[in-house]
Amino acid sequence: xxxxxxxxxxxxxxxxxxxxxxxxxxxxxxxxxxxxxxxxxxxxxxxxxxxxxxxxxxxxxxxxxxxxxxxxxxxxxxxxxxxxxxxxxxxxxxxxxxxxxxxxxxxxxxxxxxxxxxxxxxxxxxxxxxxxxxxxxxx
Length: 139
Known about the structure:
6 helices, 0% strand
């Protein structure tokens, strides 16, 4: 039995971005960040938290446009973790947060990346944008 993708390869980045925009909000429900951690130091917390939100929301975009590593189950978590490192430095610089917050942000970024890549693979049977073999073969 041959499984064929219903999504054309050119739509793979858009699909990943859409999945990422949905899944990227879920960590906010569990660990924030919360603006009050930054407001305490007279920083604009409601503005600063968008560094975290935008990084999470971009995970799907990067999963969709990146080809290496080739396998979705490696690329997704790796990109999710890497994209959360820059806002993680904000966590490290905030005394009310520190390494614990950075750990959880990088971890949930990795989970978001794995989820985005996994859902995209389940829908398309493609490991990445240029993957033509897995979308046309049976498994």
